[in-house]
Amino acid sequence: MTVTVSASGLTLRYGGTRALDDVSLRLGAGVTGLLGPNGAGKTTLLRVLATAVPADQGSFTVLGHDPGSAAGRQDLRRTLGYLPQNPGFHPDFSAFEFVDYVAILKELTDRTARHREVRRVLDAVDLSDVRGRRMKRLSGGMRQRVALAAALVGDPGFLVLDEPTVGLDPEQRVRFRELIAQAGEGRTVLLSTHQTEDVAMLCHRVVVLAGGRVRFEGTPAELTARAAGRVWSSAERAPGARAGWRTGTGTFRNVGDPPEGADLLEPTLEDGYLLTLGDGEREAVA
Ligand SMILES: Nc1ncnc2c1ncn2[C@@H]1O[C@H](COP(=O)(O)OP(=O)(O)OP(=O)(O)O)[C@@H](O)[C@H]1O
């Protein structure tokens, strides 16, 4: 893997809370999923990498740009696309006006070239037909696509997406997944999500963060493999299971340390993820 984003020892405290605790990671082209329970530090990590907030300690580079200097920070921001958790739309802006406004902030000063770029990114997310519609009249899924279009303005080399599929219905989520996959072709994408299926379907790498620390970094297959031989079916709730629930067929699906001779099941990425977390952290999984 050619490393495009590299972070070392990132630490950030809010009062007594260590939102990030010595986080080091390396990303390459393609989509990397960032999983973690509520409060794990995902948004904080994305905000640090997007230069929205400085870390107390540690360093990172994005496509060779080091935000430690003002010039490096500016170069990094020019190669960055960021879709924050709450994009904060102006309800009376049209989709076009919103993306155009972001394009102005991204220093696209030539009006004709900028408008061409705004049309290009709205077309890329299939919103050309509604580009004149006000934000308040768009569905939640369309609004998220506008936010993705805004993040794609200027063809950034590093795209940071903070839970972009929250609140979308399954059809919209699949559509959004296609768009993220396209965006990840030849570009580094870091996608924070609570959806383990999105990671399994979309990502070539996955990072698990909990309590501000990296608990796992590797491929989705490697995370799934952590649960090999540790998922089993039983007629009653298994006492040794770390997590277990009755399935639609009436049997229990258990994750943990199976008893001798247990009826083992094929593990999923979610099983590997659950086993990577500590007991209290599993309860915080949304
Ligand atoms: N501005 C802030 N002031 C004080 N504490 C904060 C602030 N932002 C985050 N925190 C705390 O830092 C920790 C990490 O929060 P963060 O929002 O990064 O987690 P997250 O993994 O994105 O969670 P979620 O999945 O719920 O969005 C939490 O304990 C949170 O309460």
TrEMBL record:
One Pfam family, short name: ABC_tran
Keywords, comma-separated and alphabetical: ATP-binding, Nucleotide-binding, Transport
Low complexity composition-biased segments: 240-251
InterPro entries: AAA+_ATPase, ABC_transporter-like_ATP-bd, ABC_transporter-like_CS, P-loop_NTPase
ABC transporter domain mapped to chain residues: 5-236
Entry superkingdom: Bacteria
PROSITE patterns: ABC_TRANSPORTER_1, ABC_TRANSPORTER_2
Region: Disordered, residue numbers: 240-260
Gene Ontology terms for molecular function: ATP binding
Keyword ATP-binding tagged: yes
Record SMART domains: AAA
Family of the protein in this entry: Belongs to the ABC transporter superfamily.
Protein name: ABC transporter ATP-binding protein
Organism listed in the record: Streptomyces griseosporeus
